[in-house]
Protein 1
Amino acid sequence: MRFTIAIQTDFGTWQLHPDDRTLRHKSYPPYEIDLDLIRSAAQVLDWIFQIEEKCWVTDAELAGFIRAISYLFGRDFCGSGQDKPIDIKGRLRELGYG
């Protein structure tokens, strides 16, 4: 018998879709981030700045994105100032998905 643990998928206006490893903005305009393309702390920071630059993004929406990243990776990918590789597939398995 296999048990599946429910993972958190809602982060304000952002929703995690673990089946295709994307993070999607639920409100207008549609916006999707392919988490497979985020492989380092520098790429996470780049996404934070890309999202912050959108004219439609509120502080709450940016905070939701950051909460999603924190849930997915914690400080593991940049703890103590050390840039470590990000493996979204592995992390989702650790969280109980798949």
Protein 2
Amino acid sequence: MNFDNIANGMLSLFVLSTQEGWPNYLLNFIDASDDENSAPILNNNQFSAFFYFMVFLFVGSLFLLNLFIGILFINYKMAEE
């Protein structure tokens, strides 16, 4: 997967937010090169890819998904009353 178009980018972010198989994506993004016509370079952008993935995992998964689940529970309680 890559971020070359919206569909691939959204699928990659969905995999990150569900936390299923994200280490495989991380390894592929670490080896990505800046030039679109060249082959992947081993550990090319190690820090930036790792930093982006960790920030997205903590903010996206832990905060936003828990917020969404909390809103669902509040609405369920309101409907129950």
